[in-house]
Amino acid sequence: MKSYESVALNEEASIGQARRALNRRAAELDFNERRLAEIDIAMHEIGSNAIKFGRSTGQIYFTETDSDLDAPGIEIIYIDKGPGIEDPLLAVEDGYTTTGSMGAGLGAVKRMVDEFYIYSMVHSSTKRLSLYERTSHGTAIVLRKYVADEAERPASDNRSRWGAFTRPQAGEESNGDGYIIKRFENRQLIAIIDGLGHGEGARLAAAAAIASVEENSEAAVEAILRAAHEALRSTRGVVMGVAAIDCSSRTIEYSGIGNTDFRVLGGTKPLRFISLNGTLGSRLERVKVFKEQLPRAATIVLSTDGISERWDPENYPGLLGLDPQLLCAVVLRDYGRANDDATILCGRLTF
Predict the structure, then answer these.
(1) pTM (whole model) above 0.70
(2) Which residues contact 337 (CB under 8 A, 6 or more apart)?
(3) Which of 114, 135, 264, 267 can bridge 271 by disulfide, Cβ–Cβ 3.0-4.6 Å?
């Protein structure tokens, strides 16, 4: 599971703070000097844009890539609630300049990294969801820089792309949420976990749940939940959603205990499976497993209750077709609750 560090980009000094923190994290991974310098340049350009145009809302997150899904490297996420970029594709071309919105220098950023994804909506044209006091404008950028050059990295499987974003409650160091993404030959297992409450007690409960799921990852969904229930009796407990995907038959099985959100997008109509009441570790009355066939191109989204279920993909045109990590970043930015740990897991599968 990825563990993010974050820096608010709201003044000039914060650019240097972010660069130093990111450089330390990258240096631990044995990046060579050239690739470290390229990360530094990318961070400087993003930070400069954030200070000029982010309206003090810019936030940078960074972590090591997930060793189960990607080659060793660094993942950087930038989000803001600024005015947005009118034409993001134009903004990443070399030589693009602007005086009124973010975008200058993003062409250089794209050249400095191995993967670059951007999604932006301008303030004047986005829907204000006044009923929920939410807005959908702003910019999100996902970057990945790997330790090895492209020729030295193993080939990735483009039929299955996953993203995940997790953060603790505002003001807390310990994150009581967690997630799992595991790949087998023809099976994929995904789970989100929310330790009750927040702080260190919630983190310990979530860690015990993750360990139990890892130990029983090849079992059926119901068996995974029941094993976790027994393993968590000495903790404060968790709520959890678990899904297993059979890639050969395009079927998915899902079961959730407690307040989690699960949906499948991309078919003729969205699929949403409910979770039953209960708490793994203290109260488990029954387990219900839902089984459905996935569309040939499916986007799967799981989230804890730190993210409002009121988010609607219709408010983000084009976002579902982009890298799943962008979807995670945008939804958490706009619908994450500051007074709770929050986790979202997104996957795009093609069969």
Answers:
(1) yes
(2) 305, 306, 307, 308
(3) 264
